[in-house]
Amino acid sequence: MKQNENTFHSKISKLFPFLNEKDFPEFDEFRKNAINSKIPRGKIITLEGDSCGYLSFVISGVVRVYKIGETGREITLYRLFEGDSCILTASCIVSNSTFPAISVAETDVEVFSIPSVLFSTWIKKYDVWQKFIFNLVSERLSDIISVVEEIAFRHIDVRIVDRLSKLYEVNGNPIKITHQELASDIGSSREVISRILKDFEEKQIITISRGSVEIKDVNFLKEYSNKF
To answer: Does residue 39 sit in helix, strand or coil?
Structure first.
């Protein structure tokens, strides 16, 4: 039991240093109430309109937060990675409202979650919690502004190139992504994405196969993005 407690303390303190016991004297209460969950890839975590009974802290994996429009088109608002927490959930708890988007486990995910009543108490009581939430607001607002700028001011082909370039930098070839997933990421339709990818393939910039894209000309992608 002691070993499990030490492991928990080590994980949380490393990823969320604001919970350092010197600044947050109720860490034991946090530990006693925290629920450790492992969420399989592809599982919907929260639906639009759900109540927010818990605030979760991502220990590992990737969570995608997105909206669906009236036409059924998806747009990614932001992703949560190791060491993140969801500002929309925090806002939902503070304002006593429902969750305004959808969240899904993009990979296998591990989280620790605390009851919303404790979060509400601690954010009023401790400066470290207030600073943590303010930082989340700043980071996510920047993410969402970037999404709006991308949609409003950049051509779809450039947004495709940027997304493929980032995925290539992280994972190399081949990039495991479907046309629909790429469309959801950048707020377009699958038909438009397929047409542009086909054009890139005809120019021998990429090779398309089922569920993946292979980059053939990395330099072209970099130069193409810098043109616009």
So the answer is: strand
Residues 199 and 75: their CA atoms lie apart, in Å, by 23
Q: Which CATH architecture has domain 154-226?
A: Orthogonal Bundle (1.10)
Sorting pLDDT into bands at 50, 70 and 90, what band is 5? low
Q: Is the backbone peptide bond immediately before 115 cis, with ω within 30 degrees of 0?
A: no
Helices 179-186 and 156-171 pack at an angle, to 10 degrees, of: 110
Q: What is the pLDDT of residue 183?
A: 87
Number of other residues whose CB lies within 10 A of the CB of residue 2:
6
Instruction: Give Dmax (Cα) for the chain.
Output: 62
Domain residue spans in the chain?
A: 2-151, 154-226
* Run of H or E including 56: strand 54-60
Which run of H or of E encompasses 169? Answer: helix 156-171
Task: Give the pTM.
Answer: 0.69
**60-64, 89-93, 108-112, 158-162: which has the minimum mean pLDDT?**
158-162
Q: What is the pLDDT of residue 74?
A: 82
How high is the pLDDT of residue 153? 62
At the top level of CATH, the class of 2-151 is: mainly beta
Residues 6+ positions from 77 with CB-CB distance below 8 Å: 65, 66, 67, 88, 101, 140, 143, 144, 147
Q: How far is Cα 99 from Cα 103, in angstroms, rounded to an integer?
A: 10
Report the residue count for the chain. 228
